[in-house]
Amino acid sequence: MTATAHRYIVRDHAILRGEPIIIGTRTPIRAIVELWRQGIAPEAIPQRLPHLTLAQVFDALSYYSDHQDEIHSYIAQNRIPDHLIDPKVTGSV
Q1: What is the pTM of this model?
Q2: Pairing relationship of beta strands 2-3 and 9-11 according to DSSP bridges
Q3: Whole domain around residue 86: which residue ranges?
Q4: What is the full per-residue pLDDT of the chain (93 aa) written as tens digits?
Q5: Number of domains in the chain
Q6: What are the b/e assignments for 63-82, b being 16+ CB within 10 Å?
Q7: Spatial CB neighbours of 67, under 8 Å, sequence gap ≥ 6
Q8: Partners of 9 in the beta sheet?
Q9: Separation CA 22–CA 24 (nearest Å)
Q10: Cα angle for residues 48, 23, 75 (degrees, 5° grid)
Q11: CATH code of residue 32
């Protein structure tokens, strides 16, 4: 496990190939960022991810602020192609 300059953010090459995660979890920073970018307030994210504290959420967003290109790259790599999403999910049924 490799520490970062952020208290709650680490990298562990055994988890998600070293993608930055919240320490003690398998939750990648990109998951928190994607919720926030969908318009969910940081204070509401622990309701969706109850294993996280508000401090962890804010640290993840701070990490994102310092490493936007990196996190955008992880988001792009993990995006589910539109043709693989069930039409019931997208509302195009």
Answers
A1: 0.86
A2: antiparallel
A3: 2-90
A4: 999 999 999 999 999 999 999 999 999 999 999 999 999 999 999 999 999 999 999 999 999 999 999 999 999 999 888 788 787 876 665
A5: 1
A6: bbeebeeebeebbeeeeeee
A7: 20
A8: 22
A9: 6
A10: 60
A11: 1.10.10.10
Res 93: pLDDT: 55
Residue type, 15: I
Sort 2 into a burial class: Cβ within 10 Å, 0-12 / 13-18 / 19+. exposed
| Amino acid type, 9 | I
What does the block give as tokens for 85? 């999403």
Strands 21-22 and 2-3 turn out to be unpaired
Q: What is the 3-state secondary structure (H, E, C) of the chain?
A: CEECCCCCEEECCCCHHHCCEECCCCCEHHHHHHHHHCCCCHHHHHHHCCCCCHHHHHHHHHHHHHCHHHHHHHHHHCCCCHHHCCHHHHCCC
Give the pair of three-digit tokens for residue 73. 């790259």
